[in-house]
Amino acid sequence: MHRFANPTQFMRIADAVYPWAAGLSLILFLAGLPIALVTSPPDYQQGETVRIMYVHVSSAWLMMMVYGIVAANSAAFLVWRHPMANLVAKASAPMGAVFTALALITGMLWGQPMWGTFWVWDGRLTSTLILFFLYLGYLALGDAFEDSERGDKAAAILALVGSVNLPIIHFSVEWWNTLHQPSIIKMDGMTVDKSLLLPLFLMMGAFTSYYVAVLVLRLRSELLAAKIRNARMSQVAVNQAAQPAE
Amino acid sequence: MTVESILKFLDMGGYAAWVWPAYGLATAALSGILFFTLRDLKTRRHEFETLRDARRGEGSSS
């Protein structure tokens, strides 16, 4: 695993993954959207609103996966000081925040017609809102210090501490049985009809590969930002060294 | 595809006001991420090239 810590090595793999992820995402969206919106049947209880599920569950899945990636990379950064791990976490976090917001808002748009309310302070919704604040806290802390290294470390610690929220979100629907329905995707069999699972999996795959493709672009951008910082610093050093000779 | 069938599709069984905003927001969010990512990448690439060229310029003049 440690050989991926080398940015050149890492980006060689990331750049190779990029066209596949981007292409896969495009294909899955083109295949999934018509099924999700047109050909899949409405739910016998929820009618056409079930179509919201395809974007709601996909963004919820991404918000969890991306937080897991942020936390794992934060750990690798804190333990081994892998700069690349820090960049992966930093490049992922804004996307995770967007997916969380999307899961919350599409959930409200689904909740109002089906539950009769946009919001309820139950376990699932509250813990998801906390996840959103954790993402915001991570992003704010990373920028809060003059010394960017210290900011990165503080943010990484927050990400690690916050990861305790992931199992809480996951099990919330079992621990506190309120309005939010339990998971439909389970290890021991699905609790939903196949006709709804196909568009769901296509959309989840589309969202996931979209995240991977955009992550590679964001990593290129973060690496450039680091190079610019280094170039600036060496510029300052050169100027300072040159001054006494004037 | 008749006009009625399109209207029926757009109506979403009476839930158009919930389904379409959900898809609209998802589209906006995903394109938004891509837009800002590409914008940053472009700005930084430009900045990096400017810095590199400036350095090269200094190197040749000294």
Beta fraction of chain A: under 5%
Tally of separate helices of chain A: 7
Major sheet of chain A: size, sense and barrel closure?
none
DSSP, total strands of chain B: 0
List the helices and strands of chain B in order.
HH
DSSP helix fraction of chain B: over 70%
Explain what you see.
The complex is a heterodimer of chains A (246) and B (62). By secondary structure, chain A is mostly helical. Chain A has seven helices and no strands. In chain A, helix 2 (52-80) packs across helix 5. Chain A is elongated and about 80 Å long. Chain B is mostly helical and 62 residues long. Chain B starts with a helix and ends with a helix.
List keywords for this structure.
heterodimer, A: about 250 residues, mainly alpha, 7 helices, about 80% helix, B: about 60 residues, 2 helices, rod-shaped
Outline:
With 246 residues, chain A is mostly helical. Helix content of chain A is 78%, strand content 0%.
Indicate the topology:
The complex is a heterodimer of chains A (246) and B (62).
Chain A: H1 7-39, H2 52-80, H3 83-115, H4 123-143, H5 148-162, H6 165-175, H7 194-242
Chain B: H1 3-11, H2 16-61
